[in-house]
Each structure stands twice: as structure tokens, then as C-alpha cells.
Amino acid sequence: EPLGLVGEVFQSSVADSCHVTITVSLNLDLLTVLLFSLPDWRLLWSHEPRFIRQFSHGPPPRTPFCPFSLHPEPFSFDISFWTGPSWEEKKFYAAIREASLGTVEQVQLMDTFSHPDLSQTSYCYRLTYHSHTHALSHTQALTFHKHLELLLSSRLQVTIR
């Protein structure tokens, strides 16, 4: 039986006694897999924070498991630079796609500042690097980010801060 076994262990040897001892063995791993629709029982023994977070508050019964990418968490880096009056945001996004090989998942404008005397504008963006096709390491994400800085300086004539 996949969920467990029920079996008689022994019967009392005393003739006047009708006591029977029964053991019950439940496969709690399989029961949990079925209850929460887990794709693999080995997740139960994982130390993966994204898995643990889903069950840390004790979900209500029958809450199915929400799958996550098996690849590492995303990495975020900020980039700040000064631009001139000929700044084109579309070229900035094209440079991001080229430099990161499509691993930038999110681009968020954090801050802008226009200098009153220099007619320059400073932008600060937060880029989130994440891959859904392969494991992206922190070193790889940082390499992509450094490549983006070089690309922005050379092609868009911005001054990295």
C-alpha cells in the first residue's frame, strides 16, 4: 500500500484475552506530496528558501505548492550615469539587452537629477539579472553589468558614476 501499511503484529497468547495489537505505518512523505501537489518528494528535505517560505506560516489545508525556478535567485545591481541632452532611453534598453544576453529581468528607474548649470541629467537604474534557462551565478551577472557600463560609455557617451 503506497500510503502505509496496517498489519497485525501479534495476538495475545492468553486464551481468555481477546487483545490484538495492530501497527499502522504511514508514508508521511507521500501523503504530503499528494496533499500539497508537490512535483517531487525530495523537495521536502530541501533547504531552498523559496520552498520553505511557502510553508513557513502553515498554509491552510489543500493549498497547492507554487512551483519556482530551479535556478538561483535573481541578482540586482544599480547603475548611475550622467547623460547629455541627446539621451535616448530606447538605446539604453537596447544596450541592456545586448550586454546582458537577455538575462535582465527587470529595469527600475530609482532616481533622476537634472543639474541646473551643466544641462546634464543623472539617472540611477536598478537592474535585476535572472535566467530561467540556466543557472546564473553572481559572477556572471556582475560580468554582464560591467560589460553594460563599458557599452554605455562607448556607444551612448554617458559618464558612469
Automatic annotation (TrEMBL):
Check the record and name the Pfam families matching this protein: FDX-ACB
What InterPro entries would the database entry show? aa-tRNA-synth_II/BPL/LPL, Fdx_antiC-bd, Fdx_antiC-bd_sf
FDX-ACB domain boundaries = 69-161
Return the protein name. Ferredoxin-fold anticodon binding domain containing 1
Q: Which organism is it from?
A: Nothobranchius rachovii (bluefin notho)
Classification from the root reads:
Eukaryota, Metazoa, Chordata, Craniata, Vertebrata
